[in-house]
Design goal:
The complex is a heterodimer of chains A (245) and B (251). Chain A is mostly helical and 245 residues long. Chain A has 9 helices and no strands. In chain B, strand 1 and strand 2 form a beta hairpin. Classes of the chains: A mainly alpha (245), B alpha/beta (251). The complex binds adenosine-5'-triphosphate and magnesium ion.
Chain lengths: 245, 251
């Protein structure tokens, strides 16, 4: 019951979000702000986790490949495909659900409980569209870029790790990451990241927008936003993978 | 002139407002008074359409607000300024940006014109040289005043204030009361103020509507309060020893 209630209300909210904006100037300004907030401010965390995971995948693949028949360049291939297929889109999205999702929900939730949303409505502003659509548009622009950067940084991390630990030589790794490269995998990953961006920003906005009460409830909304957007990301990961691959 | 007729409002199973009718004249300070939890905020928000009423009609200069479409309401909303109980300033914008916001959104002004108007309004409420501070960086009284500046930026025909001076010291409270009084007589605004501050009632109240447990219990002029026999109103107004004494000396 609760699920259908939320789904219905979510759909109605999204209809208001995508109605015609009141004033395009203010919207463009807001989109710029959100691109900085969602994209630029997430660069560091995406770089750090991608680098380390790329490094760890390389080392683990190398240590697990004890069979001498297998050439070591396969380590490079393994790192490349793990990063591209799954990590840079899905795992990065889950990390961003925690970082971006929780702050969107608490920002909008705070605006709700302190009557800032009422203040917008009373001025005649469509608050749903004004607050939420710039975030969704910004996520459409930034998530694919974050995803691509994560691939590059992760594969680079694997290279550094292979070099330093001696797990795989530089030549072998670089040969490996080019070996049997399928460009479509990147397209697949970028498409997923676009979906995940919209899922995270819209679901987090939803939970923030319908916060009632006070500071305590803002915290609860923020938790709900993270949990639910993570679950939906995982669900869509399954659906998109079965459609696209 | 705002007229409300037979307004009722409930949330899920609890009814908050019961069949309230009254009218608010322009250029006068109309006060809604009542205990905490009596339904003042809900009444104010129902009048402006932030809550949908279950029954009843609301007229803004004869225009029936309750039956309007979203679009028609939007036009009236542009004539409304509102000061919320907590100020409700946008906390990610500076004070100047807060006051400029409605101007930039609806007035078709250039940035410069909007800034000029915003500065005029800020000056009007005596908040100067603080344009680039954020709401969290100024005191509560100043936040209320900036909220008033934002509410009057578009020259509203209707001004609603929800407890504009709650939580303020008596002197600042009076400054804000007088400010509201001046502004609405100056621009002939129809103004409705929620309050449970007896000083405001005595200082600026032209018409007073007393809400008790969600019902209109009494209405009248300020001076009539001294003589009324309404038990609940007396309990509310003359709760403090000070006001009891004042009444004794008056009668
Ligand atoms: N959104 C809501 N959902 C359910 N009940 C509500 C809602 N808003 C208000 N109420 C209930 O309506 C009643 C009146 O609340 P209201 O906020 O109007 O009081 P008030 O007179 O403004 O009090 P105060 O002086 O403390 O601001 C309260 O009992 C409150 O619990
Ligand atoms: Mg109230």
């Amino acid at each position: 019951m609760n699920f259908f209630f939320n789904l219905g209300r979510y759909i109605l909210l999204m209809r208001r979000v995508f109605s015609k904006p009141d004033d395009s100037r203010e919207y463009f300004k807001a989109i710029g702000k959100e691109i900085v907030f969602i994209g630029y401010n997430s660069l560091l965390i995406v770089f750090v986790i991608s680098f380390f995971i790329g490094a760890v995948i390389t080392i683990q693949t190398a240590y697990n490949m004890t069979n001498p028949i297998l050439p070591t360049y396969l380590v490079g291939l393994g790192t490349r495909d793990s990063m591209i297929l799954e990590f840079s889109s899905t795992i990065v999205a889950i990390v961003l659900a925690g970082k971006v999702g929780s702050s969107i929900a608490s920002q909008i939730g705070t605006m709700r409980v302190t009557e800032q949303i009422d203040a917008l409505e009373i001025m005649g502003v469509n608050s749903a569209s004004f607050l939420i659509s710039p975030k969704i548009i910004a996520s459409l622009c930034t998530f694919p870029i974050l995803c691509l950067l994560s691939m590059v940084v992760g594969i680079f991390g694997g290279w550094i790790a292979g070099e330093f630990t001696g797990a795989v030589s530089s030549d072998q790794y670089i040969y490996g990451i080019q070996y049997m490269f399928i460009p479509y995998y990147m397209v697949y990953s970028v498409i997923k990241s676009v979906f995940f961006g919209v899922i995270i920003t819209s679901i987090s906005s939803y939970f923030g927008y319908f916060t009632t009460g006070g500071a305590l409830e803002v915290g609860q909304s923020s938790t709900k936003a993270v949990v639910n957007s993570t679950l939906v990301v995982l669900l869509f990961n399954l659906i998109l993978t079965s459609i696209l691959l | 002139m705002i007229e409300i007729q037979n307004i009722s409002k409930s949330f899920r199973n609890t009814q908050v407002l019961f069949d309230i009718s009254t009218s608010f004249e322009e250029g006068k300070v109309n006060l809604i008074i009542g205990q905490s939890g009596s339904g003042k905020t809900v009444l104010l928000k129902s009048i402006v359409g932030l809550h949908e009423v279950d029954a009843g009609n609301i007229f803004f200069h004869g225009r029936n607000f309750t039956t309007m479409s979203f679009k028609e309401r939007k036009e009236i909303r542009k004539e409304i300024g509102m000061v919320f109980q907590g100020g409700a300033l946008f906390d990610s914008s500076t004070l100047e940006e807060n006051v400029m916001f409605p101007l930039r959104m609806f007035a078709n002004m250039s940035v410069e014109e909007a800034r000029e108007r915003a500065n005029f309004c800020l000056k009007r409420v005596e908040v100067e040289n603080r344009n680039n501070l954020y709401p969290a960086e100024i005191s509560g009284g100043m936040q209320k005043r900036v909220a008033i500046a934002r509410a009057i930026a578009l020259n509203p025909k209707y001004l609603f204030c929800d407890e504009p001076n709650s939580g303020l010291d008596p002197r600042t409270a009076i400054v804000i009361d007088n400010l509201i009084k001046e502004i609405i007589t100056e621009y002939n605004i129809t103004c409705v103020v929620n309050t449970h501050d007896m000083n405001s009632v005595m200082e600026i109240g032209d018409k007073i509507v007393f809400i008790y447990q969600g019902k209109k219990w009494w209405e009248g002029k300020r001076d009539e309060i001294w003589e009324t026999n309404n038990v609940e109103l007396n309990d509310f107004v003359f709760a403090s020893e000070l006001y009891k004494k004042i009444r004794k000396s008056k009668l």
